[in-house]
Specification:
- The strands form 2 sheets. The protein has a 7-stranded parallel sheet with strand order 8-7-6-9-10-11-12.
- Strand 3, helix 3 and strand 4 form a beta-alpha-beta unit.
- It has 2 domains: 112 residues, Rossmann fold (3-Layer(aba) Sandwich), CATH 3.40.50.720; 177 residues, Rossmann fold.
- It is α/β, with parallel strands linked by helices.
- It is built from 12 helices and 12 strands.
- The radius of gyration is 22 Å and the shape is elongated.
- Bound molecules: NADP nicotinamide-adenine-dinucleotide phosphate.
- The site of NADP nicotinamide-adenine-dinucleotide phosphate (NAP) has 29 residues, from helix 7.
- Belongs to the D-isomer specific 2-hydroxyacid dehydrogenase family.
């Protein structure tokens, strides 16, 4: 890049299949070595083991094993905001810096959450299927759905994305409330400290927490029962935040009304039971998947790597 120190001899690893624009831009800046997400890390060639930076993305992340396979690793650039698949403690212990891509994807993920809310509560996906199947033309009348306007919207995790969802729903919600580990000082919405009270007070829960061990199974059977048979849930955060077996059971037994899901425990595998349910709207992890945002995310990964290579402060460090 013009005006920048030459970095083309710096060896870096791309871990898993990256977004093509990012891959091409990395190849112009660095000496890249591609490592498959399922590679035998004990058998990496010596040239790869020389890598000083690693570029990965949310669902692949950077477990301790890949860090240990790269003894000279200094920097991990992550093409996602969620870093639940990066062993951050291990990185910290090794003095490896980690960057992610906050903010640039917030609006798109919030848009998808709102889209899933409407698609689920208004039966948009199921009704689309019945029109395509010719059932409407044959005289089948779709079942009435529920209205969105006036619903009490519970945001689980009022972070960057949670707030963007709340802002979008302010004009239509009956009330917006939220639960997280602590109240957000400048938030205008009602904070509910107890997760079950939060679920009882919500008609729709939108899950927008971070993933990782601290939120694993946060939405459990008790919380789904507290949401109740008229309640809907939308998840754009990580599949791990909801106990997926409990969700399947609650949906199958009509203990909740429906779900809109962008994320799953074992992606890209979605439980057959969810695929078979008409009250569930499914997305293949598309929260940030727009042309505009994916480019902005890639540019932020590159800006962090350029800063690292130039010895300058990182733009969006996690650690
Ligand atoms: P963020 O600003 O860090 O917000 C995370 C929120 O989670 C905070 O409000 C935090 O509040 C809350 N939280 C964390 N641990 C919690 C716990 N144990 N119990 C309750 N609340 C908890 O992150 P963001 O930028 O909004 O992103 C949120 C997540 O969205 C990401 O981590 C990622 O997993 C997911 N995401 C998904 C997609 C997609 O394609 N579907 C795209 C981008 C991001 P407290 O710390 O106060 O508890």
């Amino acid at each position: 890049m013009a005006g920048m120190p030459d970095s083309t001899s710096i060896p870096i690893v791309t871990f898993g299949t990256l977004y093509p624009y990012l891959n091409e831009a990395l190849a112009q800046r660095f000496a890249i070595h591609a490592v498959a997400a399922d590679a035998d890390l004990d058998a990496l060639p010596d040239a790869v083991r020389e890598a000083r930076a690693l570029v990965s993305f949310g669902t692949v992340g950077a477990p301790a094993a890949i860090m240990d396979a790269l003894p000279r690793l200094e920097m991990i650039g992550l093409f996602s905001v969620g870093y639940d698949k990066v062993d951050v403690h291990h990185a910290q212990a090794r003095g490896i810096r980690v960057t992610n891509t906050p903010d640039v994807l917030t609006d798109d993920v919030a848009d998808l959450a709102v889209g899933l809310l409407y698609a689920t509560v208004r039966n948009i996906a199921a009704n689309d299927r019945m029109v395509r199947a010719g059932e409407w033309a044959q005289g089948v009348r779709p079942a009435l759905c529920r209205r969105v306007t006036g619903k009490r919207i519970g945001i689980l995790g009022l972070g960057r994305i949670g707030r963007a969802i709340a802002r979008r729903l302010e004009p239509v919600a009956g009330e917006i409330l939220y639960h997280s580990r602590r109240a957000v000082v400048d938030a205008a919405y009602r904070y509910v400290a107890d997760p079950l009270d939060f679920a009882r007070a919500s008609d729709v829960i939108i899950v927008a927490t971070s993933g990782g061990p601290e939120t694993r199974g946060l939405v459990d059977a008790a919380m789904l029962d507290a949401l109740g048979p008229e309640g809907f849930i939308v998840n754009i955060s990580r599949g791990s935040v909801i106990d997926e077996d409990a969700l399947v059971a609650a949906l199958a037994e009509r203990r909740i009304a429906g779900a809109g899901l962008d994320v799953f425990v074992d992606e890209p595998h979605v439980p057959e039971a969810l695929i078979a349910m008409h009250q569930v709207v499914l997305q293949p992890h598309q929260g940030s998947a727009t042309v505009e945002t994916r480019k902005a995310m890639a540019d932020l990964v590159l800006a962090n790597l350029d800063a690292w290579a130039a010895g300058e402060p990182l733009l969006t460090p996690v650690v």
